[in-house]
User: Which sequence fits this backbone?
């Protein structure tokens, strides 16, 4: 079955390992997980297994952390990492796709999609919103009798867009038919996946806007689809494998409506609240019957794109940026670009502003990805995620690549559908964690090795180490025996002597006024292994 989700290929892959060859999926799609990639492990957080993050920085890239939605490892998780690649937070159990730092009612929040995949490619989930303590504050559900009532929520993974008016924009896919699809080479009693935009109120789950692509086939005709021919790749057009003509993969609320991307028409659209499609920019001229409204300037073409976003400048001219994937199939690795266009709605012209790529290390991803302009200490930099290729890059304002992070093999199953970079200060309500064991140091003799971490506490500067002596092995008699600066997600330090009880106290990191926060007191875990 085909939904609007390539992404789920990977999720299914790892969660159930159920890719069943020719029945679904793409011809040539990799079915093995690819080369091994090392995972990080921590003494104090044994269930966290983020991939090792290789970082190559060649210029000032700012201090803000990076948000990834890791899929394809044994722990599906949202993670936050520092610009040097050090883990700051890992959370979620199942999926936290589209992990996005945002502001809701003036407060910092994180949003992400979480849900269930069923059969092969369908997905039903809700939008989780967390505060800066990583506590769940909203679980936004898409509910509409027309979508069914089997699932608690029908949002799919492709879009999680928080508006400035306390609502989220999501997409969903629903099976349509039977309908005569013979005019595009399909069955006369054919089925296809319609793609819909919904805007939902965060607090009440009320549907504020709903728009169906199939209902607007006067302006978005099925003949505009490039998802042909019918078959394994785009669906057979029957109930089990409906045709996937649109593949909506982004939807954004803008001042005067919504801007959305259909990958399978290589087109970006603007729809106003009454449902009228007011403009559409066809990125490719390979579907000759399409009516191009715009005069397309040099180098403005794009195809199979993701994450189309508009930054409004004025009523008549806007900046449009997107990931120009430039690849139809998993077997293709044409160069993928971050494309920035100026759209002039007075003279209906599209001009290329920039087409970003790292010439020394070009990436080619057939699906997934995000592309956004940064602010704050990396003002006017551009940040790109390469979807199915587990690489993110930052470009400075002049278009030079200054930061590359890789977190999986390029031909494998680890990926982050999108990635974000923004200011974030996390103050978890959990306590710091500690672990300790005994070992021998060549210089100092017997030592107690202490591990300290605090998942999500971004502001911790270091650790005070409190130990209880073995000759007085009671848990109330701990004394501060040393301190260490933070060296990463887990700080490891050694204190001379053999102690039996240990506790750590953070130096900073807690929410004021209780900035230094203690762990539990635990017994030392014997000799280090
Ligand atoms: C996720 O849940 C599974 C059980 O469903 C559990 O075994 C695993 O430890 C959990 N992982 C995390 C990171 O919480
Ligand atoms: C995430 O989705 C899974 C699968 O639907 C569900 O079991 C789990 O409870 C969800 N987690 C949260 C925090 O809602
Ligand atoms: C096009 O849309 C109209 C109504 O919006 C519908 O009656 C018709 O069946 C649609 N055609 C196809 C091929 O879906
Ligand atoms: C749909 O088409 C595929 C490929 O021909 C076939 O395997 C499947 O059984 C068909 N499903 C139905 C309901 O006809
Ligand atoms: C929908 O809104 C657009 C722009 O505001 C307007 O031009 C158009 O006439 C409206 N269409 C209908 C059917 O109301
Ligand atoms: C279009 O791209 C080509 C090749 O990169 C370049 O030589 C040319 O200057 C570009 N044209 C414009 C108008 O940017
Ligand atoms: C832009 O449009 C808004 C509402 O449609 C209007 O109030 C405003 O005056 C317009 N601005 C310009 C510069 O035309
Ligand atoms: C990408 O590369 C393939 C060859 O591997 C080529 O056939 C195709 O036209 C290229 N472009 C796109 C947009 O897929
Ligand atoms: C459209 O107008 C803009 C200025 O707003 C100008 O830069 C551009 O060259 C014009 N394009 C065409 C095709 O006339
Ligand atoms: C526990 O340690 C404290 C401080 O060293 C000491 O005052 C107290 O007597 C000890 N209690 C026991 C039961 O050993
Ligand atoms: C911690 O770092 C500061 C400077 O950043 C340094 O002065 C201090 O000696 C370090 N402390 C330890 C325990 O390494
Ligand atoms: C936190 O610990 C550090 C290092 O021991 C200390 O300098 C600082 O005063 C403590 N802060 C508070 C609020 O107790």
Assistant:
């Amino acid at each position: 079955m085909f939904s609007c989700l390539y992404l789920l290929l990977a999720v299914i892959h790892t969660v159930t390992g159920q890719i069943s060859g020719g029945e679904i999926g793409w011809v040539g799609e990799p079915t093995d997980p690819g080369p091994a990639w090392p995972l990080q492990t921590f003494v104090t957080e044994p269930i966290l297994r983020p991939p090792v993050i290789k970082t190559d920085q060649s210029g000032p890239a700012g201090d803000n952390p990076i948000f990834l939605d890791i899929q394809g490892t044994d722990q599906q998780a949202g993670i936050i990492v520092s610009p040097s690649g050090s883990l700051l937070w890992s959370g979620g159990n199942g999926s936290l796709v589209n992990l996005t730092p945002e502001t809701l009612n003036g407060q910092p929040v994180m949003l992400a999609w979480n849900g269930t995949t069923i059969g092969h490619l369908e997905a039903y989930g809700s939008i989780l919103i967390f505060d800066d303590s990583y506590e769940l504050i909203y679980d936004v559900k898409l509910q509409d009798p027309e979508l069914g009532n089997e699932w608690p929520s029908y949002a799919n993974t492709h879009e999680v867009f928080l508006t400035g008016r306390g609502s989220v924009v999501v997409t969903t896919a629903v099976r349509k038919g039977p309908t005569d699809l013979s005019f595009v080479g399909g069955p006369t009693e054919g089925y296809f996946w319609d793609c819909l935009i919904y805007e939902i109120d965060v607090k009440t789950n009320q549907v504020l806007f709903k728009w169906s692509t199939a209902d607007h086939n006067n302006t978005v005709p099925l003949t505009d689809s490039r998802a042909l021919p019918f078959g394994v790749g785009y669906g057979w057009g029957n109930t089990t494998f409906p045709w996937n003509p649109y593949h909506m993969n982004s939807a954004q609320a803008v001042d005067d409506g919504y801007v959305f991307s259909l990958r399978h028409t290589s087109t970006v659209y603007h729809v106003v609240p009454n449902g009228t499609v007011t403009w559409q920019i066809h990125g490719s001229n390979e579907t000759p019957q399409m009516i191009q409204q715009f005069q397309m300037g040099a180098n403005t073409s794009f195809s199979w794109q993701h994450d189309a976003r508009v930054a409004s400048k004025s009523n008549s001219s806007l900046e449009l940026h997107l990931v120009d994937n430039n690849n139809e199939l998993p077997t293709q690795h044409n160069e993928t670009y971050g494309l920035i266009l100026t759209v002039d709605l007075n003279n209906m012209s599209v001009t290329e502003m920039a087409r970003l790529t790292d010439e020394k290390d070009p990436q080619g991803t057939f699906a997934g990805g995000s592309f956004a302009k940064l602010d704050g200490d990396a003002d006017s930099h551009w940040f790109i995620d390469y979807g199915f290729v587990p690489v993110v890059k930052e470009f400075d304002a002049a278009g030079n690549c200054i930061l590359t992070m890789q977190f999986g093999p390029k031909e494998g199953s680890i990926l982050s559908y999108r990635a974000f970079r923004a200011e974030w200060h996390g103050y978890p309500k959990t306590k710091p964690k500690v672990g300790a064991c005994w070992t021998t140091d060549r210089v100092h003799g017997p030592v107690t090795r202490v591990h300290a971490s605090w998942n999500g506490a971004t502001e911790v500067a270091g650790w005070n180490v409190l130990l209880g002596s073995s000759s007085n092995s009671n848990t109330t008699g701990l004394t501060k025996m040393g301190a260490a600066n933070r060296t990463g997600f887990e700080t490891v330090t050694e204190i001379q002597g053999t102690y039996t009880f240990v506790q750590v106290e953070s130096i900073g990191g807690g929410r004021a006024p209780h900035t230094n926060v203690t762990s539990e007191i635990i017994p030392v875990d014997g000799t280090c292994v």
Remarks:
- Residues 7-15 form the longest helix (9 residues).
